[in-house]
Amino acid sequence: AQSVTQPDIHITVSEGASLELRCNYSYGATPYLFWYVQSPGQGLQLLLKYFSGDTLVQGIKGFEAEFKRSQSSFNLRKPSVHWSDAAEYFCAVGPYNTDKLIFGTGTRLQVFP
Amino acid sequence: GAGVSQSPSNKVTEKGKDVELRCDPISGHTALYWYRQSLGQGLEFLIYFQGNSAPDKSGLPSDRFSAERTGGSVSTLTIQRTQQEDSAVYLCASSSRMGDSPLHFGNGTRLTVT
């Protein structure tokens, strides 16, 4: 079955610390992978996406993610977290020809000053 | 330019009533999606419209749910005889389906069924 797992429901980090949010997927075909961020009271915004090519992708706001086929993972990273990064982060997988994406349950990030 | 607009932003209704949720996609976007976001359950795909093709309704949870898209633009999601388990945030997204264009999400409608 196709699925996305975000094992961490809630993560707390100090401002300036590094961050890694985990995402594992199960998908029968070549996966197209996405990370979205949802700030309080706002819609989801695309952070980055992986379709093909270089397995390390750069996104907005200083985020990056690495696709590891052997581990079925697409973890999101940021070297130094800012207080404004506090939000909920969703990993998603899907086919390219539609955006009928399968989303994970999200990881809520809290940032302490 | 204008983003995806959803209305109302909040809706409280009594169990058993019908509700309509509206989505105005970005102008020119041919693809439109409805998702449901329930607490602790991530986003659940509901329905997908692409151009003039028949919609993909495979995610609709029951026959109380329906959606239409008029003139290839505005979409309405209708929930009949609402139940408490329908309480969630309903998100609409649109896409131009050009190359690797991303989904653009609206801010959602928070539905509370009392």
SSE blueprint:
The complex is a heterodimer of chains A (113) and B (114).
Chain A lengths: L2 E3 L4 E5 L4 E3 L2 E3 L5 E7 L5 E7 L5 E3 L5 E5 L4 E6 L8 E8 L7 E2 L3 E6 L1
Parallel strand pairs in A: 2-12
Antiparallel strand pairs in A: 1-4, 3-9, 5-6, 5-10, 7-8, 8-9, 10-11, 10-12
Chain B lengths: L4 E3 L2 E4 L5 E6 L6 E7 L5 E8 L14 E5 L5 E5 L8 E8 L8 E2 L3 E5 L1
Parallel strand pairs in B: 2-10
Antiparallel strand pairs in B: 1-3, 3-7, 4-5, 4-8, 6-7, 8-9, 8-10
Describe this structure in words.
The complex is a heterodimer of chains A (113) and B (114). Chain A has 113 residues and is mostly beta strands. In chain A, a hairpin with a 5-residue loop joins strand 7 (56-58) and strand 8 (64-68). In chain A, 36% of the residues are buried. In chain A, strands 2, 5, 6, 10, 11 and 12 form a 6-stranded mixed β-sheet that branches. Chain A has no helices and 12 strands. The termini of chain A are far apart. Chain A has strands spanning 3-5, 10-14, 19-21, 24-26, 32-38, 44-50, 56-58, 64-68, 73-78, 87-94, 102-103, 107-112. Chain B is mainly beta. Chain B has strands at 5-7, 10-13, 19-24, 31-37, 43-50, 65-69, 75-79, 88-95, 104-105, 109-113. In chain B, a hairpin with a 5-residue loop joins strand 4 and strand 5 (43-50). The termini of chain B are far apart. The model of chain B has no long low-confidence stretch (mean pLDDT 91). At the A-B interface, strand 6 and strand 11 of A face strand 4, strand 5 and strand 8 of B.
Q: Short summary of the structure?
A:
The complex is a heterodimer of chains A (113) and B (114). With 113 residues, chain A is mostly beta strands.
* Largest interface pair: A-B, 24 and 25 residues
- Label the overall shape of chain A: globular
Characterize the biggest β-sheet of chain A.
6 strands, mixed
Low-pLDDT runs of chain B: none
Number of helices of chain A: 0
| DSSP strand count of chain B | 10
User: Which H/E pattern describes the elements of chain B?
Assistant: EEEEEEEEEE
**Poorly predicted sequence stretches spanning 5 or more consecutive residues of chain A:** none
- The helix/strand order of chain A is EEEEEEEEEEEE
Indicate the mean pLDDT of chain A. Answer: 91
Quaternary state reads heterodimer
Secondary-structure content class of chain A: mainly beta
Quick one: how many beta strands of chain A? Answer: 12
Q: Given the C-alpha coordinates, what overall shape of chain B results? A: globular
Helix share, percent of chain B: under 10%
Terminal-residue CA separation of chain A: 41 Å
Cα gyration radius of chain A (Å): 13 Å
Strand content of chain B: over 45%
